[in-house]
Every structure is written in C-alpha cells, then in structure tokens.
Design brief:
Rossmann fold; 16% strand; single chain; 268 residues; three-stranded antiparallel sheet; binds 2-phosphoglycolic acid; alpha/beta; 10 strands; seven-stranded parallel sheet; 34% helix
Length: 268
C-alpha cells in the first residue's frame, strides 16, 4: 500500500486528481470508478479545472459509480446521479453513453445488479477506482459484516451511515435505508484504488483500515490485499496511524527509491 499524507483537503484533492489525470493522459479511454460524498468534491473540482485549463480530455473515458440510494430517482437532488452531474459530469466533455450510475429505481434489483457487473466487465474492468471511507470503515456502501468477496447488490445501511448522511437531508427519517453498491469484491478488481480521507473524524477508520486486521467489520481493510492501493490522507485523517513517520519518510524518498529499483546500467 502507498500511504500519502498531505497537509489539508486541498492538497489531497490535488494529489488524487493528479493520479487520475495522469492515468487518463496515458490511457484516454480509461475506465474510472467514481465515488460520491464530501471527500471527492475537491478532486472533481481539480479535474474540472484541468479539463478547462489544461485540455484534460474525457471524450473516451467511461465511468462507473460505486453506489446509489434505493428509491431516489435520478432527478432527486440528493440522489448520487444528481450529485455526480452537478459536481463533475456536466462540467467535462464526457460522453453521456459512457456514464454508468446504479439505478436506485430499478424494478428488479438483483437482475439490475448482475447487469451492472456485466457492464463493468464489458468495459474491460475498472482501471482506477476513487474511494472515500465511512466513519464505520465502509467503502462504497459495504457496511460492516459485508463479505469481502461481495458483488454489486442491495445493502441495508447502518444507523451510523444514516446518521452521517442525514446532514444532507432535512430530517434523518428522509435518508434512504437501502442502497445499491458495488461489492468489496467488485472494488478489489479495479487496477488501482485510491482512497481519500479528510478530517479527524476519519482517523479511527483509516488507522483500522491500514494497520488493523483485514476484517469484514472494516471493509476498507480489504485494500490491504490489493496490489495497487493508494491512501491519500490529510494530517488529521492520518492522526491515529502508528507508522505515520515511516509513511512520510517513504513518500519523501520516493524518487530515490525509484532510482534504486531501476535496473543497474552496465559499466563501460
Ligand atoms: P464522506 O463519505 O466523503 O461524505 O465523508 C465517505 C463515505 O461514506 O464513503
């Protein structure tokens, strides 16, 4: 795992956006896995800036979102559809046909979820998946006790997640109780996973995810088994990591490490 610790929200947003943008520049038809919530908003603003000022081109990019509330139509202001178009998709040159968000109004949810998995496969799999982390350690809406092999499916939200998300709704009883979410197994198949976390409220789940045991009780801990997982944390979110100094040391020496790993040139 790569653990990148930055000073603040602006810096983690810039770092995350740089990783995504570099990928798109190398592979213009990249398949992105996207997340909602407060955390990726800065990353999306940075991608929008790169699109309008640096010509970052989304024409051939495909996106799949992690999750959606069940029962909210795409037009609902608190649906994740609405969020994604508002925060990113309307502001870049993405082809509407390449955008995939789970349909919270699907009539047959199991069949719909199976089709969502098939669409990811048909697109060639997700190259780079953006993730946040819940205060209960979830990725997507994979709440504690979700199978680490789970696929896209209907999930009942925990009281903690409902309370966390109530800030966006007028009343807590308006927060949907169910969501469609990619599974942990689905997420784990992405080529690269980047998880962003900001604020002291995330310090506990972040420490458990990175330094605790791999457990279905903290589904983000499954990323310990991923070959290319990058955690991008601001200082408060990194506050409970035991090896914080080591991670910063590794990051500072990244260039030297790359040189050390390069093949030794034959002598004269
Ligand atoms: P947040 O949500 O970015 O709004 O903190 C993260 C999550 O629940 O995955």
């Amino acid at each position: 795992m790569e653990i990148i610790i930055k000073d603040d929200f602006a810096a983690i947003s810039a770092e995350g956006a740089k990783i995504v943008a570099d990928y798109i520049r190398r592979k213009p038809d990249a398949v992105l896995g996207l997340a909602t919530g407060s955390t990726p908003i800065g990353l999306y603003q940075e991608l929008i800036r790169m699109h309008s000022h640096e010509g970052l081109d989304f024409q051939q990019v495909t996106t799949f979102n992690l999750d959606e509330y069940v029962g909210l139509p795409a037009t609902h202001k608190l649906s994740y559809h609405y969020f994604m178009w508002e925060q990113l998709l309307s502001h870049i040159n993405i082809n509407r046909d390449n955008v995939h968000l789970p349909d919270g109004m699907a009539a047959d949810i199991p069949a719909y979820c199976k089709g969502y998995e098939e669409a990811i496969q048909a697109a060639g799999g997700i190259d780079i998946q953006v993730l946040g982390i819940g205060t209960d350690g979830h990725i997507g809406f994979n709440e504690p006790s979700s199978s680490l092999g789970s696929r896209t499916r209907l999930k009942t939200l925990t009281r903690e997640t409902i309370a966390d998300n109530a800030r966006f709704f007028e009343r807590a009883d308006q927060v949907p109780r169910y969501a469609i979410t990619m599974g942990v197994g689905t997420i784990m198949e992405a080529g690269t996973c980047i998880l962003l976390a900001s604020g002291a409220g995330k310090a506990d789940p972040v420490a458990k995810a990175i330094e605790g045991p791999v457990t279905a009780m903290i589904t983000a801990s499954a990323l310990q088994l991923h070959q290319d997982a990058i955690f991008i944390l601001d200082k408060p979110a990194a506050g409970k990591l035991q090896l914080q100094e080591y991670y910063e040391w590794v990051y500072q020496n990244k260039d030297n490490r790359a040189r050390a790993a390069a093949p030794i040139q034959a002598g004269p």
